[in-house]
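Quick one before lunch.
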Amino acid sequence: MTDLRLEGVSKRYGGDADGTAALRDVDLAVREGEFFTLVGPSGCGKTTTLRTIAGFEDPTVGTVAFDDEPVTDVPPEARDVGVVFQSYGLFPHMSVAENVGYGLQFREPPEGASVDDRVGEMLELVDLAGLEDRTPDKLSGGQQQRVALARALAPAPDLFLLDEPMSALDARLRESLRRQLKRIQSTLEITTVYVTHDQEEALALSDRLAVMNDGGIEQVATPREIYHEPATRFVAEFVGDNNVFDGTVVARDGDRTRVAVDGTELELTGVPADATRVSVCIRAAALARDAEENRLSVSVETSEFRGEHVHAYGRWNGVPIVLRLEAVPDDIVTVGFAPEDAHVLEST
Ligand code: ADP
Ligand code: MG
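Model of the magnesium ion complex:
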């Protein structure tokens, strides 16, 4: 069990002056036993952060510490981390059992267990008992990734690091592996850092997550906080079907504030004190046809059938907007929202 800290970590690839800034002053504190996720669009620095934690990359500046001990100069093989990548990287000529037992040549199994017992225990954990003698080419993609999980966990590492481990699997398999991973992680209570570009996966799996953008951290919070109280416009737009409108404060009256968005006045609560320019975030699901306040007339351009509901895309006063409705709407649909359903950020 280990906690993890990154302090002031920056990374430049390829020379100080003209290199790419992959990480900019990243501070992170991952708690013991936590399932922590780094989420963000491609190229935002997730893999670089994970590789820096594992020791495959050295930070240009800043420190990495496990349990308050700096490990910045400790090589990866001495860091006691288990790593799983998108490509399973199994040894093709070895059986499942040999793959899972691989790391136990270098590190004793925990609690005095024999290698065979530890391999058996790991295969139970990932639901692959009975497949010991198979070679990887006789396994499905999901089974191969579970072998990779078992192999990384067999030496009982202090930290479990996963970089987009499910991206190569189809949607149904991803969901089932996601539930298994969550169960494994909470059974072992192992401190875990998980990388994904998929916000839904991040919200479903994590105790807390860091939303990254352009080499920096936008917000660190629980899934609920990230979803309901995004700290920045970037987070609001990245997570869920949010509509974000730029507005200007017109008048304040008690806890209510009138905000003008493209000539239309909205009535809102929770507008930050002193803010004059704001970003108004409203989830698609909060825009309802029968809501009485803040009525918006939307011209619909396209609709998508999503099973339980329909996503309609259109414009309100020329501003792009997404709605989540029960049925395909007419060309013009009027929706509204309650003042407290908007989340308002001061814009810079
Ligand atoms: P992510 O995993 O979020 O997609 P990465 O950490 O892989 O992002 O990359 C962050 C940035 O660093 C990107 O701009 C990427 O092009 C750059 N980068 C990553 N690895 C290298 C490398 N070995 N050499 C040069 N630039 C790199
Ligand atoms: Mg990556």
